[in-house]
Design a protein that fits this description.
With 312 residues, the protein is α/β, with parallel strands linked by helices. The chain contains 12 helices and 9 strands. Strands 6-5-4-3-2-1-7-8-9 form a 9-stranded mixed beta sheet.
């Protein structure tokens, strides 16, 4: 997120970031994962995925993220990455639980992946098994994080609930030791508990982590809108999440079972028109998903959007 991005955003500006859910299938059973709603919990065909990427790239797409479920369980991932790179995708990211064969991750890097976000919810194998709902995977995940971090930008995502809250500082420090570029911490939507980070030092080497730690230490929740925050979402103008046949306001809204804005098989001009209409008309404070789950970084972006564009 940047001031330059929010200053120039419109229905016609380049798409900055889009995320595509390739499959709802996953080899982990994380207790905090709600899965996808029934009408979008399907495996996308390679041809459909390519059609969506083609539409996005026609809008000067800058960053795309492929996720799931677990995207490494989806056949065709390497081909889709190569296709996206060929069509001009500048930054190609994968969200993964890190449990695939290391050779697959290497092949994805060779195909064009520039960014991995890997789940790491524990700093020991016993808690790792509890969080993942599966034994004997934590060591492989750790080895893959260490390997991948040597080649491309790699961040780890730590989802925090009552099972690992007491280990949060240890997980953060352990992740840093694996050579990652940054660390993302987030509370589960079910609990939205205040994270216990008082003892975690703020290190500017990790800007995403530093931003979140600063907010939490200033008593800001990771999730939720507060009175005085913008009632409109400007982020929806150049950001998009897709699953099944539908496009959603954002990836959080999609994962929290929200309704889509429209159908992804519509012409891209109509998709962007529908998203611009949603941005102008939708009161986020009256929407329980937005109100409870909007992330701090998105809140800040939308408050800046209100300031620069004169929205509510």
């Amino acid at each position: 997120m940047s001031d330059e991005r929010v200053k120039n955003v419109s229905q016609f500006s380049p798409l900055k970031r889009c995320e595509l859910i390739l499959t709802g299938a996953c080899n982990f059973k994380c207790g905090y994962c709600r899965g996808l709603r029934a009408d979008i919990n399907r495996t996308m065909s390679l041809d459909q995925a390519k059609e969506i990427v083609e539409k996005w790239c026609s809008q000067s797409l800058e960053s795309v993220r492929f996720s799931g479920g677990e995207p490494t369980c989806w056949n065709g991932l390497k081909e889709l990455v190569a296709f996206t790179k060929e069509r001009g995708g500048k930054n190609i990211a994968i969200s993964t639980n890190g449990s695939a064969n290391s050779l697959l991750y290497q092949e994805l890097i060779w195909a064009g992946v520039t960014d991995f976000s890997i789940s790491l919810d524990a700093c020991c194998s016993s808690t790792g098994a509890i969080m993942a709902g599966k034994k004997d995977e934590w060591e492989k995940v750790v080895e893959n994080i260490s390997m991948i971090s040597k080649h491309v930008y790699t961040s780890v995502g730590i989802v925090v609930n009552e099972k690992n809250m007491g280990e949060l500082r240890g997980i953060i420090e352990f992740a840093k030791g694996l050579g990652v570029a940054d660390v993302r911490v987030i509370s589960t939507a079910q609990e939205n508990a205040r994270l216990l980070v008082e003892a975690v030092p703020i290190d500017s080497k990790y800007p995403i982590l530093a931003y979140r730690l600063k907010n939490i230490k200033e008593d800001r929740h990771v999730r939720s809108l507060q009175e005085g925050d913008s009632t409109r979402c400007g982020l929806v103008l150049d950001d998009m999440a897709v699953a099944g046949r539908y496009h959603f306001p954002c990836i959080i809204y999609l994962r929290e079972q929200g309704d889509p804005i429209g159908k992804v098989n519509d012409p891209i001009e109509k998709i962007r028109e529908d998203r611009a209409r949603w941005a102008g008309d939708h009161d986020t404070h009256a929407d329980v998903i937005c109100q409870k789950n909007c992330l701090d970084v998105c809140v800040d972006h939308n408050n800046k959007y209100r300031e620069l564009h004169g929205t509510a």
